[in-house]
Every structure is written in structure tokens, then in C-alpha cells.
Design a protein that fits this description.
L-glutamate N-acetyltransferase activity, acting on acetyl-L-ornithine as donor; plastid; ArgJ-like_dom_sf
Length: 467
């Protein structure tokens, strides 16, 4: 796959040696700004996450959810948050009927917007708008909460001259709290009027969907599918209650590729399994997890009508890259975290087995605590790999921390403990990445998972979440 080379102005912030300030008690009072500042500078209310898209035959570009042709976005303060005036309402729209797909939490206590979106996607293969609110999860709110979703979707649909099923809803915030419907409905005209295809439109939406996040998560790439350049972009939120299937995370993915509905929906599920279902912060799977993916088809590329052709493989790689970039940004921004942990596993029978072992290690509280303590305790890594319920030959187990090999052939190796500890310390000081490499055999399976270290601040943040 070749890369498209267009004249594009791109601002990619450098996060080398950059530290994000993290509160010692609560994220609820991060910033106090005036209403005018929020209205005019929503896109810059919080800084951007580092660009963590994997390398590949694509070019990173600016624009997030508005990079692909046909999409607009906006984010404003609508008065839904319990305190502060950070933007809390976001909207993403498409100029045409976009092929739609979704992935959702597996939690039985699914929020009203999750239930609504599932029904809407069953009724229609296309959508035109995604409305997102922060502040209230609208989960465990009964029939009244579901009717709130219906009324919000209907009001926006009427304003945009759409049918209700073309409007999808995502919510994030405190469980058990219904949407502040009156404030939301009153803010809709301003939200619609702020829609823009600009970078600022995308960034303002990425800010508005955040809760305890300290950075906005927005990425976009451009690449060739067949002979035509296509774009894939997205935004996500998430920082705590992050665990596979999925987590307290919301996401919107957009592309201008041309793809059939059944193919697109399968691609999205595959990409989610390789990204958002491979991240963990604290082991909690939430009630509201939703990823909506929309394909406008406005690139003019050849239609992808089956999963077996080279064009489908190219688009899948692009979709994987964007979702993995966003997923890693979520883990990087884990509540109280000082570094990202990337676990790579090889040597299994297939990808699913490698992914499960990687997820097991990334999820281990003992591994995460050791990383925070800058303790190269490889025994915890071996233990977590072993209880993943994937059988492997212990005599083939190999573990490395960065470039430092700790175990080989199932046997511990003499290693420079101070150097290994310093590797962990540098990653924490720079808010960088700790790489763990695990090999369990000679099979072709490869997989990755991402997490973060577990610090004292995580407990402080969540001990006072509603107070």
C-alpha cells in the first residue's frame, strides 16, 4: 500500500520528555475558566494526547473526525457538568447517509443510550449524526432514562431534518444520573450552529466528550486503498473504569472509504478486538462503552464489497491503526498513571491466544504496581502470562523489559537490576512507554495489549469521584 502525498499542514505535538500534571486528589477542579473562554477556545481547553498511531503505510494528518470527506463536528458547554465549564456536548454529522457500525459494552447493566443505539443500528444500515454528552451516564435510569434518549434523538433529528434512527447517542458520566435533558435540548441550536469541518470543530468535540481525561484524544491518517486516497479519523474518551469488553470509553470513527454495510460492520468488530478490547487501566468494565464508526463513501474509491480482497485488507489496516492509536492514548491517560505499558506476545498458535496472554499481563495489578514502584519484578509478568489459561511450554518462555532480557528458556537470567529499574523510572518521568516482550513458543500468533501503571493517585481520584 502506498502513501498519499498531499500538501497538508499538520501540527503533531511532541510528547518526548513531556509531563502532564496530575491532581493529587480530584480531577474535578482541574481548570476554572470564564464562559467566554470556553465559547471561543473549546478546542484548546485541555491539551492533546500524544500521537500513538502505529507505523505503517499511511500518513498522519490533522483533523480527527472531520478529516474524512463529508464530516463536521462541534463541541460546546451546555451546562450538563456538575461543576466547571468545560465543554460537555459534542456532535458529529455526515453530509450524506453514512454506512454505520457500532461496538458496545458487554455489561448487563447497559446504559439507555447503548440500548437505543443497538436498536437503531438494527433498524438502519446508515446514520447521519452522533450526539454525545458528558456529565451523566444515563445508566440504570429505567424507562425514564430511555425516554430521555428518545426525546434528545428526536429533537436533534427534527433540527437536522433527519429521521430519528439516523441520530445515534452516546453518554458518559455518573451512573444512575439521567441526562440533564432541559439543558441539553436548550443547547442543541448552538451545538448545531457550531458545526464545522475544521480541525477546531473536531478538537472541540474531542474535548467535550471527556470526563476525568486530562488530554483530548483525536487522530487521523491518510492512505491509499486501491488507487485512491482515503482518510480515517477518530476521537475517543477514557481514563478510568477501563478494561476489555470494552471500558468507560466512547469513540467515534469516520472514513470516506466506500464499503458495504456487512463488510464495514465486520471490519469494525475486528478493529475493536485489536484495540479497545486490548486496553486496561483498572479492571472495571463500564455501562456506557460505545464506539460508532461511520463511512461516508465520498472518497470516490472503489467499493469494497467483500473481506477477501486487497482493498479490504488495506482499509482494515487503516482502521486498526486509528483505533489502536486512540486506545493507546486512553491507556496512556489512565487515572493517576505515569506511563503507558505495552505488552507484546509472540509464539502462540494464533492471534487470539497471543492477545489473551498480553491482556492478562497488562491487566495484572501486581505488574502495574511494580512498574509504578520501578521494580523489574519479572516474576509477576511470568505469573500473569501463566494464568491467562493459554497453555504453553514453560521451557520456551522468554521475557524482556525494553531491551533487557530477564528470562529465557523458562530460566531466570542474571541482569542489571539497576539498569532495568532506571528504564522504568525514565518512562515514568517522561510519561513514556514501558515495553514488555513475551515469547511463549514458536507459533505464528502475535498480539498486543496496553495498560498503565497503578499509582496512589488512582485511589485518591476514585475515592472522591462523586463527592
Amino acid at each position: 500500500m502506498s502513501i498519499c502525498f498531499h500538501q497538508i499542514s499538520v501540527k503533531l505535538p511532541s510528547f518526548n520528555n513531556r509531563k502532564i500534571w496530575r491532581p493529587s486528589v480530584s480531577r474535578r477542579a482541574l481548570t476554572i475558566v470564564s464562559m467566554s473562554s470556553v465559547a471561543t477556545d473549546a478546542a484548546n481547553y485541555i491539551p492533546a494526547a500524544p500521537i500513538l498511531v502505529p507505523e505503517g503505510p499511511w500518513q498522519q494528518i490533522s483533523g480527527g473526525v472531520t478529516a474524512a470527506k463529508g464530516f463536521k463536528a462541534s463541541g460546546i458547554y451546555g451546562g450538563l457538568r456538575a461543576q466547571g465549564q468545560k465543554p460537555d456536548l459534542a456532535l458529529v454529522t455526515c453530509d450524506v447517509d453514512a454506512i454505520s457500525a457500532g461496538a458496545f459494552t458487554t455489561n448487563v447493566v447497559a446504559a439507555a443510550p447503548v440500548v437505543y443505539c443497538k436498536k437503531a443500528l438494527e433498524k438502519s444500515k446508515t446514520a447521519r449524526a452522533v450526539l454525545i454528552n458528558a456529565g451523566q451516564a444515563n445508566a440504570a435510569t429505567g424507562d425514564a432514562g430511555y425516554q430521555d434518549v428518545i426525546e434528545c434523538a428526536s429533537s436533534l433529528a427534527e433540527m437536522l431534518h433527519l429521521v430519528q434512527e439516523e441520530v445515534l447517542i452516546e453518554s458518559t458520566g455518573v451512573i444512575g444520573h439521567r441526562i440533564k435533558k432541559k439543558a441539553l435540548l436548550e443547547a442543541l441550536p448552538k451545538l448545531v450552529g457550531s458545526l464545522s469541518s475544521t480541525i477546531e470543530g473536531a478538537d472541540s468535540a474531542a474535548v467535550a466528550i471527556t470526563t476525568t481525561d486530562l488530554v483530548k484524544k483525536s487522530v487521523a491518517i491518510e492512505s491509499k486503498v486501491g488507487e485512491t486516497c482515503i482518510r480515517v479519523g477518530g476521537m475517543a474518551k477514557g481514563s478510568g473504569m477501563i478494561h476489555p469488553n470494552m471500558a468507560t470509553m466512547l469513540g467515534v470513527i469516520t472514513t470516506d472509504a466506500v464499503v458495504d454495510s456487512d463488510v464495514w460492520r465486520k471490519m469494525v468488530q475486528v478493529a475493536v478486538s485489536r484495540s479497545f478490547n486490548q486496553i486496561t487501566v483498572d479492571g472495571d468494565t463500564s455501562t456506557n462503552d460505545t464506539v460508532i464508526a461511520l463511512a461516508s463513501g465520498l472518497s470516490g474509491a472503489a467499493r469494497i464489497s467483500n473481506l477477501n480482497g486487497p482493498e479490504a485488507s488495506q482499509l482494515q489496516l487503516c482502521l486498526d491503526a486509528v483505533m489502536q492509536g486512540l486506545a493507546k492514548s486512553i491507556a496512556w491517560d489512565g487515572e493517576g498513571a505515569t506511563c503507558l505499558i505495552e505488552v507484546s506476545v509472540t509464539g502462540t498458535s494464533d492471534e487470539a491466544e497471543a492477545a489473551k496472554i498480553a491482556r492478562s499481563v497488562a491487566s495484572s495489578s501486581l505488574v502495574k504496581a511494580a512498574v509504578y514502584g520501578r521494580d523489574p519484578n519479572w516474576g509477576r509478568i511470568a505469573c500473569a502470562a501463566g494464568y491467562a489459561t493459554i497453555p504453553f511450554n514453560l521451557n520456551k518462555l522468554q521475557i524482556s523489559l525494553g531491551d533487557i532480557m530477564l528470562m529465557n528458556g523458562g530460566q531466570p537470567l542474571p541482569f542489571d537490576r539497576e539498569a532495568a529499574s532506571n528504564y522504568l523510572r525514565r518512562a515514568g518521568e517522561e510519561h513514556g512507554t514501558v515495553e514488555m516482550h513475551i515469547s511463549v513458543g514458536d507459533g505464528p500468533g502475535e498480539g498486543k495489549a496496553w495498560g498503565c501503571d497503578l499509582s496512589y493517585d488512582y485511589v485518591k481520584i476514585n475515592a472522591e469521584y462523586t463527592t
